[in-house]
Amino acid sequence: MLQAIEPKVLIFAPISEPKDYSILHMEITPTLKDYDYHLPEAFIAKFPLKKRDASKLLHYENGKIQHFHFWDLPAILPANTHLVFNDTKVIPARLHFRKSTGAAIELFLLTPLRPSTLIPQSMQSHGPVVWECMVGNLKRWKEGEEIECVIPVNQKNVLLRAKLLSKDTKEVEFRWEPAELTFASIVEASGEVPLPPYLNRKANDTDKLRYQTVYSKTQGAVAAPTAGLHFTENTLSEIKKRKITLHYLTLHVGAGTFLPIKHQNILDHPMHREQMVFSKENIANLCSTKGNIVAVGTTSLRSLESLYWYGVKLISGTNTEFHVDKLEPYTGNEKNISKEKSFEAILSHLESTNQTYLIGTTEIFIFPGYRFRVCNGLVTNFHQPCSTLILLIAAFTHQQWREIYEEALNKEYRFLSYGDSSLLWNNKRYQ
Question: Considering the entire predicted model, what is its pTM?
Fold first, then answer.
């Protein structure tokens, strides 16, 4: 048996949160030491299996654990299930430059700032773009200094320039010639797949294909929604034959997903901000679903739960901004609003504002004590010790995560992004 853990990185987005934690409606505040476990290096999957769906699959329901392979998933899922996928596409976010002095500068794209803060729009830009970046060898790069490299795009050489606008905020401006090319085409040609740091190796040609889901569509993630890496076209075809409904949303996974928690009081952890995109059709379909809603990956789950809280905002009349703060679910404001009512409020808002897409951001922090409003099933890998994702799994399994992970370790599951998978149920599923 295998466990999958999702990577750790860094976090940069601004945080909005209540500082007076006494206003939060929580029976207990989890402490970090309760979510640690020993993960031997040998259990971390450094490379993907030859076949995506050959990975192991741990099935957990009502305290019972069973072991399968991922190709068994279509047969395990009950017929009245709605699978929700994150169709974000990983961009090769690592860009390499070398100064005339020979100093190497590595840029890791994090968040677009100008001319748009929306990732899809920035990727399709034909003009200069400004991104917040992680900067390798920052001390060797002066503020205002421009560096450049020549890259082949469509059998032509393109000059890509990068200028450091601010050392404090790590704002970098990118320009290229010829300007008729999109930033997406530049990044695709010059960037490197942003593998998680715990893999401890450089990306290779295989990673370009395998660190990407087969249904990826919308460019913008700097980390893969790894639960989806196990799906093949054949698996999806078998799932459809069983009349299981497939839904797609977009959450652009940010580097903050890898950030380890460093505070014993987990409330002090700064949650990262990620962009989400729902279509009006998405929301209408979810509104009318009856039966199991199974999120494929923690990113899909966080998106769906965030969508619920946005509907609560609209119903309460607080504001219409689609942003969910880190601790918003714990303030006791929902007054037992059903997911149907929440989603209906969102649809009504989209109708009244003549919108076909809903774009927002979330910092939602899910940990034990959270009550899930939308999802009762989760397909996910096994996650790192002391991570926000372990806390999410602990909440979803009613604190049974340790038994699940011990079983996976005993059965020699492979862990982290290229590791094995699990199907977890939050409560008794619909038969």
Answer: 0.88
